Fold:
Amino acid sequence: MVKMGRRLAGIALVFALLFWPAIPAGAEPSAKTPRIGLLSGATEPSGPLAPQWVAFLDALRTLGWVDGQNIVVDRRFAGGHSERVSSFAMELAQMGVDVIVATGVPENQAVRRATTTIPAVMVVVDDPVESGFVQSLARPGGNFTGVAFSIPGVGEKYVELLKEAAPSLARVAILGSHQQRPVFLEEITRAGRALGVVISPPILVHDPAELEPAVARFAHERHGGLICPSDALTFLHRKAVVALASKYRLPAIYTFREHVEAGGLMAYGPTIPDRFRQAATFVDKILKGAKPADLPVEQPTRLELAVNLKTAKALGLRVPPSLLVRADQVIQ
Structure:
C-alpha cells in the first residue's frame, strides 16, 4: 500500500508540472491595467473624438500604451457644461485612476479639490505657478505637472500684432469667461500704453447667450478690437465669436489657430495638438514610476502666427507684408 501511494503521488506531481501554466523566466506577477482619466469642460462627449485628444492617444500609442490593450482610458467631457467638471473630477478620483489629464484652469482646480495624491497632468494652463498648481516650473513639488500653455510676454505680443494689422486700433478688450492672470493684464496694459491703445475693461461672459449683447455694447464706439486668450467657452463657441467679430467689424486676435480656420482674423499661440502630444510623454513617465513632483513643467518652445486674409479684406484691412512674412499659416 505504501509503494502504491508513493507511485500515485509521483504521477500526480508529474501531471502538475506538465499542466501548470508556464510563467516566463523573470516575469513579474500580473498587475492591474493602468487607468488614465481625461477631464475637459469644453470637449463634446459625443460625436467624433476632438483632434487634440486624437493627437494625445496617438502619442500614447507611439509610446507603447494602447487603450483597451494595456491601458484603460476613462473620458469625462462636459461639452461646455462647466458645472459638471467638479463632479467629473470627483468621479475619476473615486475610481482610483492612476493619472488624470486635465485641460484648463477650472478642470485642474476641480482635480485639486478632488485629490492631492493622484498624479495630474495639465495641458492648457497658461501659468501653473501663478495658478497655484505647482511650486515652480523646475520643481512642481506636488501631484501636478505637465505643460504650460503660455510664455511670458505673450500679452504684449497680442496688442502689437493687432495694432500692426489694424493701424487705426484705438482700444481693445479681452473677451472670455474668466478673469485673466495679473501678469497677463500687466503685459497688455504696458503694450497699450506704448502703442497708444486704451485697454478697456474685460468683456466677461458665462453663457453663449451673453456673447452678442456684450460684444455689441463694446462695439458701440469705433476703432475697437478684441483679444481672445485661451478660454474654454470662447473656444467651444468659436464660430459664434468669430461671426460676432465680423458682424460688428472688430479686428480680433486669438490664441488658437482654430479660430482663424473658422474665419477669425489672426491667432498667435502654441498649437493645441502639439501640447496634447507633449502631455502624453508625462503620462508615459508617470505610468513607468516617475513622480509628478520630480517632472519639470515644460513651456512652449514655439508660438505660431496664423492670418486670415479673407477676413482682413472683409474688415477693410490691408495686412502689411512685414506681418505676412512672419506668419506660419496664411488663409487666402
Notes: The chain has 13 helices and 13 strands. The longest helix spans residues 2-19. Residues 154-269+303-331 form a domain with the Rossmann fold fold (CATH 3.40.50.2300). Residues 153 and 256 are 17 Å apart (CA to CA).
